Amino acid sequence: MQSRQTDIVIIGGGGAGLRAAIAAAEANPSLHITLVSKVYPMRSHTVAAEGGCAGVVQDHDSTQDHFEDTVSGGDWLCDQDVVEYFVEHATEENLQLEHWGCPWSRKPSGHVNVRAFGGMRTERTWFAADKSGFHILHTLFQTSLKYPSIHRCDEFFCTDLLVEAGRCAGVQAIEMRTGDHVLISAKAVIIATGGAARVYRHNTNGGIVTGDGMAMAYRQGVPLRDMEFVQYHPTGLPGSGILITEAARGEGGVLTNRDGYRYLQDYGLGPETPPGSPKNKTMELGPRDKVSQAFWHEMQKGRLVETDQGDAVNLDLRHLGEKRINERLPFIRSLAQTYAGVDPVTAPIPVRPAAHYTMGGIQTDSRTQTRLPGLFAAGECASVGLHGANRLGSNSLAELSVFGRVAGEQAAQFAAQADLVSAAALEAQAAEHCSRWEALRTANGPERTSEIRDAMVNIMDRCIGIYRNEPDMRSAGEELAELKLRYREIGLADDSRAFNTEWLYAIELGFLLDVAEAMTHAALARRESRGSHQRADDYPDRDDTRFLKHSLASVERANPESAPTIDWQDVVITRSPPAVRRYGGQDTSLKEVS
Amino acid sequence: MAEPYVKRQPAGWWLKNPAYRRYMLREATALPLFAYTLLLITGVYRLSQGEEAFTQWLVMLRSPWCVTLHVVALAAALLHAWTWLQLVPKILVVHTNRLRVSGTLIKRVHQLGALLGSVGLVVLAWLFLAQGGS
Amino acid sequence: MSQTIRIQLERYRPEEDSEPWQQTVEVPYHRDTSVLDALNYIKDHVDPSLSYRWSCRMAICGSCGVMINDEPRLGCKTFLREYLDAGELRVRAMDNFPIERDLIADIGGLVGHIESVDPFLIVDAERPLSEGENLQTPLQLERYEAFSECINCGLCYAACPQFGRNPQFLGPAAITLAQRYNLDSRDDGTPRRLAYLNAEEGVWSCTFVGYCSEVCPKAVDPAAAINQGKVSSTLDFVQRRAVDPVSTEDG
After folding, report:
1. Which of A334, A494, A498, B133 could be stapled to C49 by a disulfide with Cβ–Cβ 3.0 to 4.6 Å?
2. pLDDT classification of B1: cutoffs 50, 70, 90
3. C74, C89, C105 - which closes a domain
4. Which residue of A has its CA nearest to C42?
5. The domain containing residue C48 runs over which residues?
6. Which one of the listed residues A233, A262, A521, A535 is annotated catalytic?
């Protein structure tokens, strides 16, 4: 086993990881920073974000409005101190990206342009055409090259956190090229591994989004918070789940059912707005949870459009015209042509909801510190308390920068005053992990990785979807426990070391099963309906007396195989007491999109 | 330790792919043009040797292989000019803070220039011949 | 799904094989099946030992570049239906790179070249964030926008015979990225980057084969970037010679 030493190790080279690395390098240039990623950083799934990145910039907008939209969008489960910090710092982070070269789309005057987004009462979504995540990721990656103290380990697959004397003291990884195990001891560790929507079959995520960091922290006893809140993006392509950005609706696209009817008006988002003249927080610009739930109701009513790849609704952009589509949504046009065989200039795009984003994640405080000293988390893998029960579109890209930076600075501060745990102290546990992974590589049981994975994603699609009920969730819990037993009987056909992806997929499957279980048990425990967690049959209403609380799913370090126990943590309320979420005609403060 | 496998570029790398063959053809247009240049230099040299030598050279120009060389050289020159005109808008970009000229316009202007230049040369040669003949 | 198509895969497992070998697999065909879907099918149902890179499935992460019937293509953006007439599909790792394993090319050289051209905004006088954004009109943005859309997939390197001949050549993506910043109205770093572009392994190793632009899945047109780089490099040479004829003697 190779052994390395560093001051800060960052797991994950996406938006949050890169922003954290740069922040740490700027905060303290003398620190040695190691950025570990299982893919080259520009492959990270930040790359697929399309619509844009929130930040108040218009004169008639305010951070108070952004705060209120985020808190009500999150169905009052957001920690409001965190939201306050976020809205105050989102714009400066977007500006920072601009100063680093991000090609934000511009107004004729040369100022940065903003577009409308779901659940936002004012246009405040900065965008780079419809490849905002791509440009943010590449800008951050390229900018990170300026800092000599950032050392990358590309295509190193992290398997474990190393914990010694109650402190996170490093990570263990597999160098994918060789299959060698690597022990990296560090004074501080930041997890920035993104989400876990790959626990679902129909999802918008890349193959790498397998909840690695969440599971690694969870196995060390760090709770996963609010895992029952999984966002279904309303507009994925049927079959593949490929993401069609919310900006398509922000620019004026409309959703219609089989009868050509703008069905969102039936679900508290109306009154209907003229096509091409979107109104903020109304109809197609409702929040994602409500728009996806409306699809589910249309499905119950049998009003969907049949396609080769399953039932869908139509996303109609034709009235925008070719020029505007090419200017604002060129990637969407190309995606629809390539993956749905449809040119949105001449025909509507068939879409349906797809699992997209985990609102929950590794529990951190408002400054990204987990309860394990020396361990920080930022981005989608973390639950800093920003998104509550439903994230607003374009808040997650802003989150990467705002809390990626905080994590980098906090870790730098921590590392400056901490000592390295001696490698010798870590070697024993590293050897233990090592033999576990080696046993998996050479395992010859009867079970196949791909079969267990297929079973898992089908369970999650069926039972932990847009609407949930007790019997389905119970059965999901039991079936997942059974899959975990089967996972122990796994066998690999390939016992080689170099780029053995069968081995790596098997490790990822273990991570996914843990995350799926945490989601399921947290969902069972939350006996109310809030945001993206809806229980129409038994608990159709929000219950603030019992469940204005974050759920915490955790397992004991000594027994990470067991099912999680669920605890509760109070939500931080500062200036906005829980109230009714109002959209469309119910919200009297709305203006038309200019 | 296992090592990556390094393939060497085969000598016939350009044979398999039509894009490479087109590229090699474009580059190969230099060969007939080179031969044609040699022919013209020979003409000048023969002229320096006196009228008889030059007349012999003129007679040689009428030989079938020499006519063939002319045809091939003309075809090569036209092909090269055509590929050049295709590539011009990629290389020559007029794009300032206030003004952007489309690639198509740049290409058209070049095509027009090539056409006018060619016609001009033919007219000049014709005038010259007409004068010399009188 | 009763119809199938035959796929020939070039395999190389560094621990066991001294050179690549061919494996033939039948894969069920559907109108929407991409080559990446086919590889995933093979991995799950035929041979779990096949290794390849992939992630986003939507032609933006740049992971799944391979040679398909001798052409550099993204697996996720190439569909089996395009090869029904050909009858067979041959897939191998990207040309011009060492093969790590199976369809995985060692792209360390490409990433190294990208890192080497100072691909970030260089400004003479930093402005504080409090002064707001740098102004940039849509026309100024358009000047470099296409060159900023490179996903670093490496297909252009697999398409470039000059890179195949000499891996030290900076190559299409790295030069395009340098040009992306050189053409950005906010950037002052051109003199620094010209040092790399002017060098033997910079723009002048390009002979304008142009195939890089043909295979680019994002219409970035790297051949245009490189050849505009030649114009800049020439102007730079002339300017420096005019200003200071002696110091430019050695190029």
Report:
1. A494
2. low
3. C105
4. A450
5. 4-105
6. A233
DSSP per residue over chain C, as a string? ---EEEEEEEE--TTT-SS-EEEEEEEE--TT-BHHHHHHHIIIII-TT-------SSSSS---EEEETTEEEEGGG-BGGGGTTT-EEEEEPPTTS-EEETTEE--HHHHHHHHTT--S---SSPPPGGG-PPP--HHHHHHHHGGGG-----HHHHT-HHHHH-TTS-HHHHHHHHHHHHT-TT---HHHHHHHHHSTTTGGG-----HHHHH-TT---HHHHHHHHHHHHHHHHHHHHHH-TTTTTT-
Q: Can you list the domains of chain A with their CATH numbers?
A: 2-231+356-422 (3.50.50.60), 238-355 (3.90.700.10), 427-566 (1.20.58.100)
Asked if A92 and C129 come within 8 Å (Cβ–Cβ), the reply is yes
Say if residue C13 is in the same domain as residue C66.
Answer: yes
ipTM greater than cut 0.85: yes
Instruction: Identify whether residues C195 and C112 lie together within a single domain.
Output: yes
How near does any CA of chain C get to the CA of A69, in Å? 24
Across the range A108-116, mean pLDDT stands at 97
Per residue in B44-90, pLDDT (tens digit) is 999 999 999 999 999 999 999 999 999 999 999 999 999 999 999 99
Domain-terminating residue out of C89, C105, C121: C105
Residues B1, A497: C-beta atoms closer than 8 Å: no
pTM score, two decimals? 0.96
Residues of A within 8 A of C62 (CB-CB) are: 42-43
Fold category of B15-76 in CATH: 3 helical TM bundles of succinate and fumarate reductases (1.20.1300)
Q: Is the pLDDT of residue C248 over 50?
A: no
